[in-house]
UniProtKB/TrEMBL annotation:
Lineage: Bacteria, Bacillati, Bacillota, Clostridia, Eubacteriales
Annotated ranges, domain HD: 21-124
CDD domains linked: HDc
Gene3D superfamilies named among the record's database cross-references: Hypothetical protein af1432
Identification of the protein by name: HD domain-containing protein
Length: 196
């Protein structure tokens, strides 16, 4: 079986919440390609990293009290050698997976940089808001709609500064504005969140 199909099946069978499911992985993969269209990235590396970057969050692989990026790296290190994946590219995938979070420094390769950018941007704007509200009550940090609003506000303030490429910065500004428009509207329509 083609490694791309295998990776999709792994994510689909992992029990991942829709916020981190295969659709999130596809968005990250395609946005990485869009942001880096002026470069030639290794598509096999980018695809594998995009598919596996959040596996450490899924019920099939998560470990309590372990950072999901590190867990995802471990899962990836175990899975890729068992597949028809080129062994000489595994270290590049591992670097991208380990360093995909906004609180990490970007990885060493262009693939790692653009994967991280796309993942950060998937937490902003309309799609980021949808993802936040989809995990209310299912995430330790987001137990209520008010928690989701606070996290959206924090993301709007902090995440654009975590993006480093020109294309990423342009999109971060647009998605931040989408988030702020939403928050402003919700505030007006709920008597400053009292009726949320």
């Amino acid at each position: 079986m083609d490694f791309r199909k295998e990776l999709v099946q792994i994510v689909e069978k992992s029990g991942a919440h829709s916020a981190w499911s295969v659709k999130h992985c596809f968005r990250v993969y395609h946005l990485s390609k869009e942001l880096s269209s002026h470069l030639t990235l290794d598509d096999e590396v980018l695809y594998a990293a995009a598919m596996l970057h959040d596996t450490g969050k899924s019920p099939a692989y998560a470990l309590k009290n372990m950072d999901h990026a590190l867990r995802s790296k471990g899962v990836t290190a175990n899975l890729l050698p068992q597949m028809s994946y080129p062994s000489e590219k595994i270290s590049l995938v591992l670097d991208a997976v380990e360093n995909h979070m906004y609180y990490s420094e970007p990885g060493r390769s262009d693939e790692a940089v653009y994967l991280r950018e796309a993942d950060i941007l998937d937490n902003l704007g309309n799609i980021g808001l949808m993802r936040l509200f989809s995990i209310v009550g299912q995430d330790d940090l987001i137990q209520t709609p008010e928690d989701a609003i606070e996290r959206a506000r924090l993301f709007a303030d902090a995440l654009p500064d975590k993006v480093s490429t020109k294309a990423g910065k342009r999109l971060a500004i647009k998605r931040r504005e989408e988030t702020l428009r939403f928050l402003s509207g919700i505030k007006r329509q709920t008597l400053e969140y009292a009726w949320l």
